[in-house]
Design goal:
Blueprint: H1 2-18, E1 51-57, H2 75-83, E2 85-87, E3 90-91, H3 96-105, H4 134-140, E4 144-150, E5 169-173, E6 184-186, E7 192-194, E8 197-198, E9 201-202, H5 211-225, E10 232-237, H6 249-253, H7 261-286, E11 293-299, H8 323-326, E12 330-333, E13 342-344, E14 348-349, H9 353-360, H10 377-382, E15 390-396, E16 419-424, E17 427-431, H11 449-459, E18 466-470, H12 486-502, H13 534-537, H14 542-550, H15 554-572
Parallel strand pairs: 1-10, 1-11, 2-13, 3-14, 4-5, 4-10
Antiparallel strand pairs: 2-12, 5-8, 6-7, 8-9, 11-12, 15-16, 16-17, 17-18
Helix pairs in contact: 5-7
Length: 575
């Protein structure tokens, strides 16, 4: 009981004294009137289209970068951000697939049918094939396009693969998480397979190489073989720092004083990733790209607090619509920025990179109407106001409805049991169940996490389905103003109604047993084709006879997988 009380006291103390002095926001963050999302930047002053390097990290918490006061060492990210423009009003999505889909399409997930959860390995689902992707637009503009890292946008058909969606080359994983050394991924007991691909082939020969190093080395190789006179786009989607928590020994040793094992391993992975970014930046300079390059750094969602991550002092964590789930680490580093070495409070969302980067590339946006993103390059480079005034965080009709929500609580215009969240100007509204809702400091103590689970269980029992915050004045979401400002609540609910009218049906099909890696030589990969027809997507009768032909291979596949894993573990010297 004493420990519990002490933990509560520490929270109040830290919130009251430790961070309230931080100048989080400044007045006039956004323009009063939204402009056309297709609006292009002023003609670039640089002579030719810039090289674009987009770095996306996985599950890195808001607090987990040096310049946000972290105890984790990130000297490269700190330097690049300090010399560029830090984005401190930057938003992403709370989980993997939604952030990646919005980056690649420039559209909210309600407009691609991916508004619920993630794309799972056995689902016959992928980024809709009618969407024109960011790399496709850059290819049209004359760019060489390359992807290295985690895809997580579906792969059940070959048409869904990165090399069919605009990338000239691809090295990485197709699913959501894999072993950093063996590249194995299990989607349930006994449903395991290898997931590292080179183009459209399985990269068996790369097993045993730590993915963070492997991906950075591949970027360097791409730069070395390409001409800096020709524009290039490289999308580096690190697996780090998603679970499993694995890192080379030498990085863990730096954090040996951390009592919390998960935090120690997580910190090592972040620092390792930081060094990988250093190597990529060095390669840009070595091979002559740097002076005409734009480096964008972004996280994909908030940190997972029970896996070592920290979003302190923000509320919530990965998978929630509290600020800790959707406010991201972001910065732009480029010699081409007009006003460098500053912090921007312009409102920016991950959908904005699509029109921003296509405009920088001098590409054509006229044939991709109804983008939800805006060109924010003038705000980043010149310090102008952002054209964005609001963000639809999401509307998820399939998520568990809040027990105490109702149409009546939503003024008869919105069912507050539905999970949804929107930001308009300085106001943020949440309805339904937004997810775990507490403030969780960095878990550096050996037994720290336990007491916080108790707090989460208590706060999740509140009989509420509507929250309203003034994010400018209250970035930590401590003061719910829904009762005091019903007028604002009603206004934001009307915006949710507006967006909901434009939403397309949710794409979340049942899992298909044909996706099992045993039917694909022991690896995750496409299992359907255009010739199969729709019945293959639903797991119909033809599946049974097809599976019988492949089951004979299963024992050999499993035996080979066993020896491959054993060999990798003996040679990788991993922890």
């Amino acid at each position: 009981m004493a420990v519990y009380a002490l933990t509560g006291f520490s929270l109040v103390s830290l919130l009251s004294f430790g961070y309230l002095s931080w100048d989080w926001m400044k007045p006039s963050l956004v323009a009063d009137v939204a402009t056309d999302p297709m609006e292009k930047a002023l003609p670039p002053t640089f002579s030719r289209p810039p090289h674009i390097i987009f770095i996306l990290t996985d599950d890195q918490g808001y607090h987990d970068v040096g310049y946000h006061g972290s105890d984790i060492q990130t000297p490269t990210l700190d330097r690049l951000a300090a010399e560029g423009v830090k984005l401190e009003n930057y938003y992403i999505q709370p989980i993997c697939t939604p952030s990646r889909s919005q980056l690649i399409t420039g559209r909210y997930q309600i407009h691609t049918g991916l508004q619920h959860s993630i794309i799972r390995p056995r689902q016959p689902n992928c980024l809709p094939l009618d969407q024109v992707t960011l790399p496709q637009k850059l290819q049209e503009a004359g760019y060489s396009t390359h992807m290295v890292g985690k895809w997580h946008l579906g792969f059940y058909k070959k048409e869904c693969l990165p090399t069919r969606r605009g990338f000239d080359t691809f090295l990485g994983s197709l699913t959501g998480n894999v072993d950093y050394y063996t590249y194995d991924n299990c989607d349930g007991p006994g449903i395991c397979g290898y997931d590292l691909h080179e183009g459209e082939d399985v990269a068996w020969d790369q097993s045993g190489k730590y993915s963070t190093f492997l991906y950075a080395q591949r970027v360097s190789k791409i730069l070395a073989s390409h001409s800096p006179k020709e524009p290039i786009f490289i999308y580096v989607a690190f697996q780090a720092v998603h679970t499993p928590l694995q890192s080379p020994k030498e990085y863990i040793y730096r954090y040996r004083s951390m009592g919390n094992v998960a935090r120690r391993k997580y910190a090592a992975m972040v620092t390792c990733m930081d060094e990988a970014v250093k190597n990529i930046t060095w390669a840009l300079k070595k091979y002559g790209y740097y002076d005409n390059s734009v480096i964008v750094f972004s996280t994909d969602n908030g940190g997972q607090t029970f896996s070592g991550g920290s979003n302190w002092p923000l509320r919530g964590r990965k998978g929630t619509y509290w600020e800790g789930g959707v406010r991201g680490i972001g910065f732009v580093h480029s010699p081409l920025i007009k006003r460098k070495r500053r912090t921007s409070w312009a409102l920016v969302h991950i959908t904005d990179w699509y029109p921003t980067l296509v405009s920088l590339a001098r590409g054509n946006l006229s044939n991709v109407p109804d983008l939800d993103g805006y060109n924010v390059w003038p705000a980043i480079s010149e310090g102008k106001e952002s054209p964005r005034t609001e963000i639809l965080h999401n509307i998820d009709p399939l998520y568990n409805h809040a027990k105490y929500g109702s149409l009546e609580d939503g003024f008869g215009i919105w069912n507050t049991a539905v999970q949804a969240s929107i930001r308009v100007g300085e106001w943020k509204l949440l309805t339904g169940d937004p997810g775990y809702s507490d403030w969780i400091p960095p878990q550096t103590l050996t037994n720290f996490p336990g007491s916080w689970w108790n707090l989460e269980r208590l706060t999740n029992g509140l009989r509420k389905s509507v929250w309203l915050f003034n994010i400018t004045a209250d970035p930590y979401e401590r003061y719910d103003l829904s009762d005091q400002r019903p007028d604002v609540v009603r206004t934001l609910l009307m915006r949710l109604v507006h967006y909901n009218r434009t939403a397309i049906p949710v794409r979340y099909p049942a899992e298909n047993p044909r996706a099992h890696p045993d039917f694909n030589g022991g690896a995750w990969g496409p299992w359907a084709s255009e010739d199969d027809g729709e019945e293959w997507e639903g797991g119909g009768e033809p599946l049974k006879s097809r599976n019988k032909k492949k089951k004979k291979k299963c024992k050999i596949c499993k035996l080979r997988s066993f020896f491959r894993k054993l060999n990798t573990r003996l040679m990788s010297n991993r922890i």
